[in-house]
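Anyone have tokens for C2H2-type domain-containing protein? Sequence:
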Amino acid sequence: MFSCPHEGCVKMYQRHYALENHLLYRQCEFLPVRETLMDKAKVLYHDKLLSEASNLPSVKAESSQCPVTTEVLPQGWALRSARKATRFSDSQRQYLDGKFNVGQATGVKLDAVDVARDMRYARNQEGEKLFTVSEILTEQQIQSYFSRRASKLRHSHSEDPESDGDEDVMGAEEEIAHENVRAVVLEEVGIRHPIVFDTFNLCDMHKAGKLRHLSVSMLRSICEHFDIEVMDIKGRRKAPYLSLLGELLVACSCHNS
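Reply: yep, here.
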């Protein structure tokens, strides 16, 4: 097929002499150019810019003015308001006292950050949450409470008539505390008395037979805390969990004492 060399012409011929006649007589045939909607939009936009290039938009001033407030704010209105001191509830004090007593029994000072985190997940014997979101204390509140408890404890020892009040005694107590911490680090894989979970003294509860009063979910949480495998336990019976916890607690030094 021989096509016309002129751009836009759609004529084509099977023989070369027919193409020569076409070129000689200039019988080109052009189809109209098809424009898309986008092409038409561009052309219209171009024409609009050329026709309105010299016409700048004018903004009319409104007669009504914005109202001006006459209220005078007091000095310091943007400062953060001081928080009011609130008393701890009985459940909060009992929980913090339990944590403090655990630290005294183990000789390891509890960190307020860890206690604040544990407080979010603390549960009672039935496995229900102890505190709501509004009842969870901050690290500063917990640290302040522990400091007051420690101060009262030191004052009670100093006022004890049987205590000699010698500073060497306090130094010895601090040395013992440091030695206990060192023992924890050296024997971190071992089982030391007392074995505790949150505020629960498991050793005392095992001896008193109170572990069976805990719910199944709480017993399962305790087992998982001590890395005891409980995936194979099915059903809602307490006996399997109590058996596994019993094997853990009999290994404590208090069991043979």
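The radius of gyration is 43 Å.
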